[in-house]
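Entry 14. Ran structure prediction on the chain below.
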Amino acid sequence: MAKNPFIPFSRPWIDDTEIEAVSQVLASKWISTGNRTREFERAFAEYLGVKHAIAVSSCTAALHLSLVVAGVGSGDEVITTPYTFTATAEAIRYVGAKPVFVDIQPDTLNIDVTQIEQAITQRTKAIMPVHFAGLPCDMDVLQDICQSHNLTLIDDAAHAIPTEYKGQYIGNIGDLSAFSFYANKNLTTGEGGMITTNNDEFAKPLRTMRLHGIDKDAWARQSQRDIWRYDIATEGYKYNMTDIQAAIGLCQLMKLNKQHERRRDLAQIYQKELANFSQISTPVVPDNPNEHSWHLYIIQLPPGEREGFIGALREANIECSVHYIPLHLFEFYQKQYGYCIGDFPCAEAAFERVVSLPLHPGLTEEEIHIVIDAIGKIVG
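Output, structure tokens:
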């Protein structure tokens, strides 16, 4: 297959707006956590309609701190999906709890909510759904289960900005939500994350714990007479966001709706054109176009055909990826928690079939049709 110009799987939408914003922060000489971070938190909370947004260094940090304030600790259990990036389960391990996996739905690739209650034990303290690829989980059922069993609902919303569920944004529904601003996310700060909550009792310690448990950060202290004086009010971590990252985030937030519209348009092109190939299963599309962030566009191939498919795309200079290797298939999770091959058949079956195609706002109409034409040559 003839090679085209390289088409990347993902690329951040960065332009002169972000470059100028970062330059202004550098020129201000205040480059760590400060006023820009607070501006970003306020703007993010306003966008989602949520009361509190707490900026942190990563989604992993956001998940970890959320578990801490929810009171999850050693010997507890947290129900989640095996079909996710390892950060989801890592955060559970950080607090000494056990990730209890529940299999996924084969069509949405989200956690199968019908199997959750049978996984609940006396040690269960929280449920941590992942809105896979940007498609929301069934939040009504999850909320009902959590209320019935007195559990905390902590969203892993790494893929879910902006994702709505019945008119509300993810991030304004669960008890706590954790967002990712990694380089390939719909809104990026390079590295970074955000916790959102409507609970005042969660928000206050979260703001303190993210920076060593100090009751006043450097920005708050610099205007006081005793600039050096502070208290350690609680346990803490080095999880703060910098003003450099926040400046990028503010610019990205202003472009988020436009960027989401572009992703949605590209996904529609894929859906229409790939429907011509019977060998390919395309993703579930909700009736409400706002109920999917289209962080990823994932197709499923017949068993045994993926490696050849990826290799052929690579030969055509088209980058793709696989999301994800189910966590219970990794050596660490098998040794640490006793998981085995065969434990979660739907997750394993999906893993053998999925391919993530290029999807980002900078992908042109010409490029997406090059991808589609290449796919047609492979499967046709």
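The longest strand covers residues 52-56. Will compare against last week's run tomorrow.
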